# Entry
Amino acid sequence: MKAKPSNLIKNAPLSDYTTFRLGGPCKGLIQCETPEELIEAVKDLAASNKDFILIGGGSNLVVSDDGLDCYVIRYFSESPRIAEDENTLTVSGSTILDDLVVFAAEIGLSGINTCSGIPGTVGGAVVGNAGAFGKQIGDVLVSARLLEKDGALTEVGASELEFSYRHSSLKETHDIVVDATLKLDEAETADLLKEREEILKTRADKHPDLSKEPCAGSFFRNIEPTSKAGRRQAAGWFLDQAGGKKLKSGGAYIYDKHANIIIKGKNASAKDVFDLSNQMAALAKKEFNLDLVREVRFVGKIDGAGTNQ
# Structure
């Protein structure tokens, strides 16, 4: 390993790096804030034939209690890394998504404001086409610089990422978002900040405080409309109607204000979360004949259930 000693944490407990606060150790965690550090780390691991996965804010992830038999690159920056060129912003994948929202609002640019309060990094947001209120980051993305696992760099346009609801082709290719370029529209800063306040209040009314109730937000994608006139329906509504808030498994339970959110309770394990998510999916299938699709990703072996569920 050529990673700087200060950037490499051997046997890092991954529970320290996910919002669920779950996960055993990995071989080593390499912390990268800048594109340059990321590229160097990936090339180093590739040259050494060492397996790795990449995480950002760890907000959409459940890691096995047994940990991972590989390295982990954490591409995450506490300080936003954003370059402005009129109405175009180029932002590192390591930047916290909400920091990007604040930056854009304060300089009077709209198009990303509905992402207010969504946890995670810009890189993760692009991979999952994050958004809210019928809008998503893919709507304003112009291009992205991607890094393949062998260290090769490419630049692609938004159309090549095949965005759809909470999805992009990056979920299949596993290419890493080094940075992203967004085209936004001019707006009044005061209006954007007021809208942001309202969005944050709405989220606070329905979502738990991660510092007190560890979770990964909504566990399943919302339901696709059944007709051209229909809208997506909240998976949480169906789970609530079916009595899903009463479900629990070990130390994992359903949030009392949102039936699509699993909370890590006392002594909860990744296996508890996995089992509870299966109960939720089975309930939706039984009561409404719905096949729920997970937004949250399981990584590592979950009691023989396999990896990367």
